[in-house]
Amino acid sequence: MEKFIVSARKYRPQTFESVVGQQHIVRTLKNAIKTGQLAHAYLFCGPRGVGKTTTARIFAKTINCQNITPDIEPCNQCASCRAFNEGKSLNIHELDAASNNSVEDIRRLIEQVRIPPQNGKYKVYIIDEVHMLSQAAFNAFLKTLEEPPKHAIFILATTEKHKIIPTILSRCQIFDFNRIKIKDIVEHLKKIAQKENIKAEPEALNIIAQKADGALRDALSYFDQIASFSDKNITYQQVLESLNVLDYDYFFKITENALKENYSENLLIFDKILAKGFDEHNFIVGLEEHFRNLLVIKDTKTADLLELGDNIKEKYLAQAKQTSVKFLFKAIEICNNADINYAKAKNKRLHVELMLLKLSQIITQLEEEQKKILINQELTTPQTNTEIQQKQIKNSPDSFSIKDALGSKPKILTTNENKAKQEQNQKLQITQENILKVWKQLKDIFKSRPRLAAMFNGYQPKIDTLNNIITIEVYNQSQKEQIINIKKYLEKFFAEKFTQKITINISLQEIQNKKQHNKAITPEQKYNFLREKNPNIDKLSEKFGLKL
Question: 503-519 in b/e burial notation, b at 16+ Cβ within 10 A?
Fold first, then answer.
C-alpha cells in the first residue's frame, strides 16, 4: 500500500510563485534578493496556516541557490537546491521555540552561528513560534541578533507578535502575513482536486474555505478529511455533514419568514436545527453574519466584500432586494444583543426564540415609526401639496387614517360596540344632529393632543347645512394655526362619514365684550369673584383667620 501524504505536506509550495495569497510579501523578498539588500533578521508574523514557515524556507533556499532564475526563483538543479529538497542542507537550520525555549537552547544556537557555511553563501536560522522563548532566552539572543556574522540570517516566525519584546522587534524587518482570501483557497483546492482525481462541487469547496477562516493548512486538512468521507466525490451536503456547518437555506428561510412576520415557522425551523445537534450560539452568530451579508451585497461598493460562490451570491442578491436597509440594521442589532447576552441567559433556547420573535416584529415597528414621522411632519408644517398628502394618508373606507397615524391603540370592541361601529361607518346625511354627533368623536381621535381634544369636547361649531360648511371660531392666532394644520384631516374625516363633501372654515373672532371676559387680576378681585360664587368662603376665612 502506497504511503499516504497529507495534502498540506504533499502540496507545500516550493517556489515563490506557488505561495498562495501573500503576493505583497513575495514581491518584497524577491526584490531584496535581486538587489542584494538582504537584512540580517526578519520577523514573519500572522495567523496560523498562512505560509510563514513555508515562505521562510523558500527564501532560505533561494538566497543559497547557485543559479537563481531571471524571475528570482530557485533553480532546483544545483547542489544547494537538491540538498534542500532532500532535507540534507547544512545551511538551513530550523528551531521550534515552543519546545526549545530555554537559555541553553539559544546558547547552543549562538555557537552554531559562528561557524561559516561550507557550501553556499548564507546560513539561515528559522525559529518558529519565537514568542515562546523565555525572557532569559530573549536576552541571550539579543546581542547575536543585533550583530550577527555576515553569513548568518535569522528568520523568526510567530502568530503572536505582541508577545515579542520591543528590543527584538527593533532589530528585525517585520512582514505581516494576511489571512488567505476564500477565493484563493478555493482555487488552490480546485488544482489539488484535479491532480488527485477528486470530484468537488464549487459550493462544497467554498464552505471548506470559509470553515478554514483564512488558514490554507486548515483548509487542506478539511479537504483530506472530506475526500475520505465522500470517497473522492465531495458534495455540498457532505461538507455540511462532515464539518457540522449550518446550511445557508436555514438562514434564507428564517429571513423570509421574518419579513412575512411568520414567527411560528421560524420557531419550528429552530427546533429542527437543535434536533440536528447544532449549538444555539453558533446559530445566533451565523444568522447575524447572514444579515451582515445581505447588507453588504445591497451596495455595489461593498458587494466585493462578500466572499461566496456565484450560486450563493445570486440567492443573497435576490433576498437583498426584498429587504430594506432599516430592516437589516434592526435585525443585526437584535442578533448582536442576543450574541452579547447569550452567556448570561439561563434558558438558552428561550433566549434564541425571543430573538426570533423580535425579528418577526421588525416590519410592524418600522411601519408604525414611519406613520408617526409622517403625521408629525404634517401636523407641524403647513400643508400645500395635496398630492403628497394623498399618498401619505391611507384612504380606507373601513378606518380613519388619522387615528391609525397618531398611533392610538386599537380599542377592543364588544359585540354591541362592533355593531355600532359598523353602523357608524355607513355614510350619513348632512344634518345638524349628525354633524354634532361626529364632531364629538374628534375628542378621542386627538386625545394625544390635550388642547385640541378639549376644544372638540366642549365646543360646538357653526353649521351651515345648506352650503355644507362648518365654521370654527378661534380667538387668537395660535389657535388658528393649530386648526389650519389639521384642516385637511378634518375635511378627510368628514368626507368618510357623510355623503357629501364638507368644507372647514376658520374664523378669527375679536373679543367684543371686555367685561364678560375680564378676569381677576388683583388678589382682592380674585377673592370677590370667589365669594360671589360661594358665600361660605367668608366663614372659612373667619374660622381660620385667613388674610389676603
Answer: ebebeeeeeeeeeeeee
